Protein backbone atom coordinates (compact mmCIF):
# COMPACT_ATOMS: atom_id res chain seq x y z
CA UNK A 1 0.00 0.00 0.00
CA UNK A 2 1.57 3.31 -1.04
CA UNK A 3 0.83 6.56 -2.82
CA UNK A 4 -0.69 8.41 0.13
CA UNK A 5 0.42 10.49 3.07
CA UNK A 6 -1.25 10.69 6.46
CA UNK A 7 -2.07 13.54 8.82
CA UNK A 8 -2.91 12.68 12.43
CA UNK A 9 -4.46 15.41 14.56
CA UNK A 10 -3.18 14.98 18.12
CA UNK A 11 -3.12 18.47 19.57
CA UNK A 12 -6.52 19.00 21.18
CA UNK A 13 -6.91 20.40 24.68
CA UNK A 14 -8.56 17.20 26.02
CA UNK A 15 -10.80 19.28 28.28
CA UNK A 16 -13.14 16.33 28.87
CA UNK A 17 -10.12 14.39 30.14
CA UNK A 18 -9.24 17.15 32.55
CA UNK A 19 -6.45 18.41 30.31
CA UNK A 20 -4.61 15.07 30.31
CA UNK A 21 -2.05 14.34 27.60
CA UNK A 22 -4.54 12.32 25.56
CA UNK A 23 -2.17 11.03 22.84
CA UNK A 24 -0.06 9.44 25.59
CA UNK A 25 -2.99 7.76 27.38
CA UNK A 26 -2.60 4.02 27.02
CA UNK A 27 -5.14 1.48 25.83
CA UNK A 28 -3.96 -2.09 25.85
CA UNK A 29 -0.57 -0.92 27.12
CA UNK A 30 0.05 1.29 24.09
CA UNK A 31 -0.33 5.04 23.67
CA UNK A 32 -3.40 6.10 21.71
CA UNK A 33 -1.21 7.96 19.23
CA UNK A 34 0.92 4.88 18.56
CA UNK A 35 -2.19 2.80 17.92
CA UNK A 36 -3.32 5.33 15.30
CA UNK A 37 0.14 5.47 13.72
CA UNK A 38 0.05 1.70 13.27
CA UNK A 39 -3.16 2.01 11.27
CA UNK A 40 -1.52 4.35 8.72
CA UNK A 41 1.87 2.64 8.58
CA UNK A 42 1.61 2.31 4.80
CA UNK A 43 1.79 6.08 4.34
CA UNK A 44 4.73 7.52 2.45
CA UNK A 45 4.91 10.37 4.96
CA UNK A 46 3.06 10.69 8.26
CA UNK A 47 2.54 14.12 9.79
CA UNK A 48 1.41 14.46 13.40
CA UNK A 49 -0.08 17.83 14.34
CA UNK A 50 0.52 18.35 18.04
CA UNK A 51 3.21 18.55 20.65
CA UNK A 52 6.37 16.59 19.89
CA UNK A 53 6.79 13.34 21.81
CA UNK A 54 8.40 9.93 21.41
CA UNK A 55 6.49 7.71 18.98
CA UNK A 56 6.79 4.11 17.93
CA UNK A 57 7.08 5.09 14.26
CA UNK A 58 8.99 7.92 12.58
CA UNK A 59 6.81 10.96 11.87
CA UNK A 60 7.03 14.59 10.79
CA UNK A 61 5.73 17.19 13.23
CA UNK A 62 3.56 20.24 12.65
CA UNK A 63 1.71 22.67 14.89
CA UNK A 64 -1.23 24.94 14.22
CA UNK A 65 -1.01 28.57 15.29
CA UNK A 66 -2.15 29.29 17.84
CA UNK A 67 -1.86 25.84 19.44
CA UNK A 68 -5.30 24.47 20.15
CA UNK A 69 -6.80 26.43 17.26
CA UNK A 70 -9.15 23.63 16.27
CA UNK A 71 -9.27 20.89 13.66
CA UNK A 72 -9.38 23.04 10.51
CA UNK A 73 -6.33 25.05 11.57
CA UNK A 74 -4.55 21.85 12.60
CA UNK A 75 -5.35 20.16 9.31
CA UNK A 76 -4.05 23.18 7.39
CA UNK A 77 -0.79 22.98 9.34
CA UNK A 78 -0.41 19.29 8.60
CA UNK A 79 -1.15 19.71 4.91
CA UNK A 80 1.86 22.00 4.51
CA UNK A 81 4.08 18.93 4.89
CA UNK A 82 2.02 16.59 2.72
CA UNK A 83 3.56 15.62 -0.62
CA UNK A 84 1.20 12.93 -1.95
CA UNK A 85 -1.94 13.57 -4.01
CA UNK A 86 -3.99 11.65 -1.44
CA UNK A 87 -3.99 12.17 2.31
CA UNK A 88 -5.51 10.02 5.05
CA UNK A 89 -6.72 12.15 7.96
CA UNK A 90 -7.15 10.54 11.37
CA UNK A 91 -7.84 11.71 14.88
CA UNK A 92 -5.21 10.81 17.43
CA UNK A 93 -7.70 9.17 19.80
CA UNK A 94 -8.98 6.19 17.79
CA UNK A 95 -7.93 2.96 19.54
CA UNK A 96 -9.67 0.47 17.25
CA UNK A 97 -8.57 1.35 13.73
CA UNK A 98 -8.07 -2.01 12.07
CA UNK A 99 -5.58 -3.07 9.44
CA UNK A 100 -8.32 -2.76 6.82
CA UNK A 101 -9.56 0.73 7.79
CA UNK A 102 -7.19 2.77 5.63
CA UNK A 103 -7.31 0.35 2.66
CA UNK A 104 -11.12 0.53 2.73
CA UNK A 105 -11.03 4.33 2.60
CA UNK A 106 -8.51 4.34 -0.25
CA UNK A 107 -10.48 1.76 -2.22
CA UNK A 108 -13.67 3.80 -1.89
CA UNK A 109 -11.88 6.94 -3.08
CA UNK A 110 -10.76 5.28 -6.30
CA UNK A 111 -14.12 3.62 -6.99
CA UNK A 112 -15.44 6.58 -9.05
CA UNK A 113 -18.11 5.49 -11.46
CA UNK A 114 -18.61 2.13 -9.82
CA UNK A 115 -22.01 1.03 -8.60
CA UNK A 116 -22.60 1.25 -4.84
CA UNK A 117 -20.92 -1.57 -2.97
CA UNK A 118 -20.88 -2.94 0.53
CA UNK A 119 -17.86 -1.60 2.41
CA UNK A 120 -17.06 -2.86 5.87
CA UNK A 121 -14.07 -0.97 7.20
CA UNK A 122 -12.68 -2.43 10.39
CA UNK A 123 -12.62 -6.17 9.74
CA UNK A 124 -14.29 -6.96 13.05
CA UNK A 125 -16.75 -9.83 13.34
CA UNK A 126 -18.76 -8.28 16.16
CA UNK A 127 -22.35 -7.24 15.58
CA UNK A 128 -22.80 -3.57 14.74
CA UNK A 129 -25.41 -3.15 17.45
CA UNK A 130 -22.97 -4.37 20.09
CA UNK A 131 -20.83 -1.26 19.73
CA UNK A 132 -23.30 1.50 18.89
CA UNK A 133 -23.98 2.33 22.52
CA UNK A 134 -20.26 2.67 23.23
CA UNK A 135 -19.11 4.68 20.21
CA UNK A 136 -19.33 8.48 20.57
CA UNK A 137 -19.10 10.62 17.46
CA UNK A 138 -16.33 13.11 16.73
CA UNK A 139 -17.16 16.72 17.37
CA UNK A 140 -17.82 19.02 14.41
CA UNK A 141 -19.48 16.36 12.28
CA UNK A 142 -21.77 17.08 9.38
CA UNK A 143 -25.35 16.03 8.79
CA UNK A 144 -26.30 12.35 9.09
CA UNK A 145 -25.80 10.26 5.99
CA UNK A 146 -27.68 7.24 4.75
CA UNK A 147 -25.12 4.61 5.67
CA UNK A 148 -27.43 1.86 6.79
CA UNK A 149 -26.26 -0.47 4.06
CA UNK A 150 -22.62 0.57 4.10
CA UNK A 151 -22.94 1.68 0.47
CA UNK A 152 -20.80 4.33 -1.13
CA UNK A 153 -22.69 7.60 -1.22
CA UNK A 154 -21.94 10.80 -3.14
CA UNK A 155 -22.74 13.56 -0.67
CA UNK A 156 -22.44 16.64 -2.88
CA UNK A 157 -26.03 16.63 -4.14
CA UNK A 158 -27.44 19.17 -1.69
CA UNK A 159 -24.24 20.99 -0.76
CA UNK A 160 -24.52 24.79 -1.13
CA UNK A 161 -22.40 26.67 -3.64
CA UNK A 162 -19.56 28.86 -2.43
CA UNK A 163 -20.76 32.31 -1.56
CA UNK A 164 -20.38 34.67 -4.46
CA UNK A 165 -19.49 32.07 -7.05
CA UNK A 166 -22.97 31.14 -8.26
CA UNK A 167 -21.58 27.74 -9.16
CA UNK A 168 -23.69 24.67 -8.42
CA UNK A 169 -22.23 22.47 -5.71
CA UNK A 170 -23.37 19.21 -7.28
CA UNK A 171 -20.75 18.29 -9.85
CA UNK A 172 -22.90 15.48 -11.18
CA UNK A 173 -25.85 17.78 -11.75
CA UNK A 174 -23.72 20.38 -13.48
CA UNK A 175 -22.39 17.68 -15.79
CA UNK A 176 -25.95 17.17 -16.96
CA UNK A 177 -25.47 13.53 -17.86
CA UNK A 178 -26.09 11.79 -14.55
CA UNK A 179 -22.48 10.62 -14.30
CA UNK A 180 -21.19 10.41 -10.73
CA UNK A 181 -18.89 13.19 -9.58
CA UNK A 182 -15.28 12.30 -8.95
CA UNK A 183 -14.94 11.83 -5.22
CA UNK A 184 -12.77 14.40 -3.48
CA UNK A 185 -12.79 12.38 -0.29
CA UNK A 186 -14.31 9.50 1.63
CA UNK A 187 -15.62 9.77 5.19
CA UNK A 188 -16.49 7.00 7.54
CA UNK A 189 -19.96 7.12 9.05
CA UNK A 190 -20.58 5.81 12.55
CA UNK A 191 -23.37 3.52 13.67
CA UNK A 192 -25.73 6.47 14.15
CA UNK A 193 -25.14 7.77 10.62
CA UNK A 194 -22.89 10.65 11.64
CA UNK A 195 -19.92 11.74 9.56
CA UNK A 196 -16.45 11.10 10.96
CA UNK A 197 -14.24 13.61 9.09
CA UNK A 198 -11.22 12.55 11.16
CA UNK A 199 -11.53 8.97 9.95
CA UNK A 200 -11.29 9.83 6.30
CA UNK A 201 -9.23 10.14 3.14
CA UNK A 202 -9.13 13.20 0.90
CA UNK A 203 -7.58 14.27 -2.36
CA UNK A 204 -4.96 16.76 -1.30
CA UNK A 205 -5.54 19.61 -3.75
CA UNK A 206 -9.33 19.93 -3.22
CA UNK A 207 -8.69 19.93 0.52
CA UNK A 208 -6.12 22.72 0.18
CA UNK A 209 -8.47 24.62 -2.13
CA UNK A 210 -11.34 24.58 0.35
CA UNK A 211 -9.10 25.48 3.29
CA UNK A 212 -7.80 28.49 1.35
CA UNK A 213 -11.37 29.55 0.57
CA UNK A 214 -12.36 29.23 4.23
CA UNK A 215 -9.38 31.34 5.26
CA UNK A 216 -10.36 34.00 2.74
CA UNK A 217 -14.04 33.96 3.73
CA UNK A 218 -13.53 33.96 7.52
CA UNK A 219 -10.25 35.82 7.82
CA UNK A 220 -8.58 32.98 9.74
CA UNK A 221 -8.97 29.27 10.43
CA UNK A 222 -8.79 28.86 14.24
CA UNK A 223 -12.12 27.95 15.75
CA UNK A 224 -13.80 26.86 12.52
CA UNK A 225 -15.72 23.55 12.63
CA UNK A 226 -14.79 20.79 10.22
CA UNK A 227 -18.28 20.70 8.73
CA UNK A 228 -17.58 24.03 6.99
CA UNK A 229 -14.80 22.21 5.16
CA UNK A 230 -16.50 18.90 4.45
CA UNK A 231 -19.75 20.54 3.31
CA UNK A 232 -17.92 21.95 0.30
CA UNK A 233 -16.25 18.74 -0.88
CA UNK A 234 -17.65 16.00 -3.11
CA UNK A 235 -17.57 13.16 -0.63
CA UNK A 236 -18.45 9.53 -0.41
CA UNK A 237 -19.30 7.66 2.76
CA UNK A 238 -18.55 4.16 3.95
CA UNK A 239 -19.89 2.45 7.04
CA UNK A 240 -17.33 2.47 9.82
CA UNK A 241 -18.32 -0.87 11.31
CA UNK A 242 -18.63 -1.46 15.04
CA UNK A 243 -15.36 0.02 16.28
CA UNK A 244 -13.34 1.97 13.72
CA UNK A 245 -15.06 5.27 14.60
CA UNK A 246 -14.86 4.77 18.38
CA UNK A 247 -12.96 7.72 19.83
CA UNK A 248 -11.80 8.46 23.35
CA UNK A 249 -13.09 11.83 24.51
CA UNK A 250 -13.73 11.00 28.17
CA UNK A 251 -12.31 8.76 30.88
CA UNK A 252 -15.43 6.66 30.46
CA UNK A 253 -14.47 6.13 26.81
CA UNK A 254 -10.95 5.15 27.86
CA UNK A 255 -12.32 2.67 30.39
CA UNK A 256 -14.66 1.18 27.78
CA UNK A 257 -11.81 0.81 25.28
CA UNK A 258 -9.56 -0.85 27.84
CA UNK A 259 -12.35 -3.22 28.85
CA UNK A 260 -13.15 -4.13 25.26
CA UNK A 261 -9.53 -4.94 24.49
CA UNK A 262 -9.55 -7.44 27.32
CA UNK A 263 -12.63 -9.24 26.00
CA UNK A 264 -11.87 -12.93 25.64
CA UNK A 265 -12.51 -12.90 21.91
CA UNK A 266 -9.87 -10.29 21.10
CA UNK A 267 -7.39 -10.12 23.97
CA UNK A 268 -4.88 -12.47 22.35
CA UNK A 269 -4.83 -10.59 19.04
CA UNK A 270 -4.49 -7.30 20.90
CA UNK A 271 -1.66 -8.64 23.03
CA UNK A 272 0.24 -9.99 20.03
CA UNK A 273 -0.18 -6.69 18.19
CA UNK A 274 1.09 -4.81 21.24
CA UNK A 275 4.14 -7.04 21.63
CA UNK A 276 4.97 -6.81 17.91
CA UNK A 277 4.72 -3.03 18.05
CA UNK A 278 6.85 -2.89 21.19
CA UNK A 279 9.54 -5.05 19.59
CA UNK A 280 9.33 -3.39 16.17
CA UNK A 281 8.28 -6.63 14.46
CA UNK A 282 6.35 -6.44 11.18
CA UNK A 283 6.21 -10.19 10.56
CA UNK A 284 2.77 -11.83 10.46
CA UNK A 285 2.73 -15.32 11.92
CA UNK A 286 0.18 -18.10 12.23
CA UNK A 287 -0.94 -17.70 15.84
CA UNK A 288 -2.90 -20.93 15.81
CA UNK A 289 0.15 -22.85 14.64
CA UNK A 290 2.27 -21.55 17.52
CA UNK A 291 -0.47 -22.21 20.07
CA UNK A 292 -0.76 -25.77 18.83
CA UNK A 293 3.00 -26.11 19.16
CA UNK A 294 2.90 -24.80 22.75
CA UNK A 295 0.11 -27.25 23.58
CA UNK A 296 2.02 -30.19 22.10
CA UNK A 297 5.17 -29.25 24.00
CA UNK A 298 3.31 -28.75 27.29
CA UNK A 299 1.33 -31.99 27.04
CA UNK A 300 3.95 -34.16 25.42
CA UNK A 301 7.04 -33.01 27.31
CA UNK A 302 6.42 -30.78 30.33
CA UNK A 303 4.54 -27.55 30.92
CA UNK A 304 7.68 -25.36 30.97
CA UNK A 305 8.59 -26.75 27.56
CA UNK A 306 5.84 -24.64 25.93
CA UNK A 307 7.46 -21.19 26.23
CA UNK A 308 10.95 -22.56 25.76
CA UNK A 309 9.98 -24.36 22.55
CA UNK A 310 8.22 -21.35 21.04
CA UNK A 311 11.25 -19.21 21.90
CA UNK A 312 13.54 -21.62 20.08
CA UNK A 313 11.20 -21.62 17.07
CA UNK A 314 11.34 -17.83 17.04
CA UNK A 315 15.12 -17.92 17.22
CA UNK A 316 15.28 -20.34 14.30
CA UNK A 317 12.92 -18.11 12.32
CA UNK A 318 15.07 -15.07 13.06
CA UNK A 319 18.12 -16.84 11.68
CA UNK A 320 16.21 -17.72 8.51
CA UNK A 321 14.67 -14.26 8.15
CA UNK A 322 17.80 -12.75 6.65
CA UNK A 323 16.17 -13.70 3.36
CA UNK A 324 12.60 -13.07 2.17
CA UNK A 325 11.07 -16.19 3.74
CA UNK A 326 10.59 -15.17 7.38
CA UNK A 327 6.93 -16.18 7.59
CA UNK A 328 7.61 -19.53 5.96
CA UNK A 329 10.51 -20.06 8.36
CA UNK A 330 8.23 -19.63 11.37
CA UNK A 331 5.77 -22.18 10.01
CA UNK A 332 8.52 -24.63 9.10
CA UNK A 333 10.22 -24.35 12.47
CA UNK A 334 6.91 -24.67 14.31
CA UNK A 335 5.99 -27.82 12.38
CA UNK A 336 9.42 -29.31 13.05
CA UNK A 337 9.20 -28.58 16.78
CA UNK A 338 5.61 -29.83 16.99
CA UNK A 339 6.62 -33.11 15.38
CA UNK A 340 9.42 -33.44 17.91
CA UNK A 341 6.98 -32.83 20.79
CA UNK A 342 4.63 -35.50 19.44
CA UNK A 343 7.48 -37.99 19.10
CA UNK A 344 8.53 -37.17 22.65
CA UNK A 345 5.00 -37.85 23.89
CA UNK A 346 4.78 -41.10 21.95
CA UNK A 347 7.83 -42.40 23.80
CA UNK A 348 5.92 -42.08 27.08
CA UNK A 349 2.89 -43.85 25.61
CA UNK A 350 4.20 -46.34 23.03
CA UNK A 351 1.80 -48.34 20.92
CA UNK A 352 1.73 -52.10 21.61
CA UNK A 353 3.46 -52.74 18.30
CA UNK A 354 6.25 -50.31 19.08
CA UNK A 355 7.24 -51.91 22.36
CA UNK A 356 9.23 -50.06 25.01
CA UNK A 357 11.19 -46.93 24.04
UniProtKB/TrEMBL annotation:
GO terms for molecular function: nucleotidyltransferase activity. It comes from the Bacteria. SUPFAM superfamilies: Nucleotide-diphospho-sugar transferases (SSF53448). Residues 117-150 are annotated as: Disordered. Residues 119-131 have a biased composition (Basic and acidic residues). Transmembrane segments: none annotated. InterPro entries: DUF6457, MobA-like_NTP_Trfase, Nucleotide-diphossugar_trans. The keyword Transferase applies. Residues 132-150 have a biased composition (Low complexity). Pfam families: DUF6457, NTP_transf_3. Keywords: Nucleotidyltransferase, Transferase. Residues 6-198 form the MobA-like NTP transferase domain. Residues 264-348 form the DUF6457 domain. Gene3D superfamilies: Spore Coat Polysaccharide Biosynthesis Protein SpsA, Chain A. This is Molybdenum cofactor guanylyltransferase.
Amino acid sequence: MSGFDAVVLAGGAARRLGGADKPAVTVGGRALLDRVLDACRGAGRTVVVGGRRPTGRPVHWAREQPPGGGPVAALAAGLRLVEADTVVVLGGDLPFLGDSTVPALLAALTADGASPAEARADGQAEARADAQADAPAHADTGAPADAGTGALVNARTDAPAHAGTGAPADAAASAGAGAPAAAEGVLMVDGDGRDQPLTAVYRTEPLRREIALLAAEHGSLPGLPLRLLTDELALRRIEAGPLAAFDCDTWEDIAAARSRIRDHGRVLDEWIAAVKAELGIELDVDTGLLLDLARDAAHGVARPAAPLTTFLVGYAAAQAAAGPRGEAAVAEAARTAAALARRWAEEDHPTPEAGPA
